[in-house]
Amino acid sequence: MNNSQVINTTLIVLGGALLLYSISADDVSPYFKIVGLVIIMLGLYRATNYWVATKDDHKEDNENDRQ
pTM value? Predict the structure, then answer.
């Protein structure tokens, strides 16, 4: 697994954990929800940019195999 994929997955899981904590616990600051959403969105943004950048990698591998 690529290093950037690990970072993206970690950001998404961390943001989700913050959101779950802020929803389940009593008397939690609303900033936990905001920070959790921002972290999830950052992880998703980085992940989709990575997917777009590498979406045609399999085509290059197929072309090299044919030659």
Answer: 0.75
